[in-house]
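Model it.
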Amino acid sequence: MVPNRERFAYAADKEITDKEAVKILTINKHHERWEQLFDCVNIEELTLHDPSRDQVERIRTLTGLERLRISFFRTDNIDFITSFYNLEELIFEYVSGFSDLSPLRELKKLKSVHFENLCRVKSFDGLKDSQSLKYLHITGTLDWNQPIEDFKFLEHLTSLEVFSLGFIINKSEYPAFLPILKLKNLKKINIGRSTFHTKEYAFLETALPETEGAKWDLYWQYNKTLEFLGKKAGRASIDNPLAKEKCDEFAKEYNRMKSEAEAMIKSLML
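Modeled.
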């Protein structure tokens, strides 16, 4: 998929002369000539940026699409997505009004998914049958965190290689990432250091010792403050004479959490 900032370079707002050469297009509800899309017989990638309902419905005939991005669209459901059975990459950005991701189960070739600001979605169980999925990113934005009910869906994504989370709210209890033990092909994770409680980071570091990104600094300096790893994990002023002692205590507690996680994982393997 072309980077977000480049998508408008492919806008279908002007007459396309060599339609057979076109493989990538961007359309929106203001493009008067958008229907020429259907004459572009070799189209592989489509971006619908602020599209009309009619545009979304009519593109269902483009069953050969391999890459699809939909941004700023409101819909009661995403049943239309089932038409794209050749889809390999999918991006939903600010797609609202629906809560059920189960239509994605029909996309058997799906390899890459990016979800951003799906305001009514809490359950990501609709991804369970995406056994070809290799890349998954879920995020909200600076002013709104994407809720995630639980991470049980992960255990079904056996081909997953990269798992990334941005601005999210975790709704499940520790250990939220227990299902990640099933992911034998996981190569990289990307999770912010203040997203989860400290115990979750200790669990991930223990469960994924060879996975890129599964190790974090226990504290870092921000202005004149040392911030500890984890959501609401606390901080220490660098001017505080007890700062080093607090850091040592936090490191000791973190190692205890890792030992607890290790014992839990070993008991599950028996």
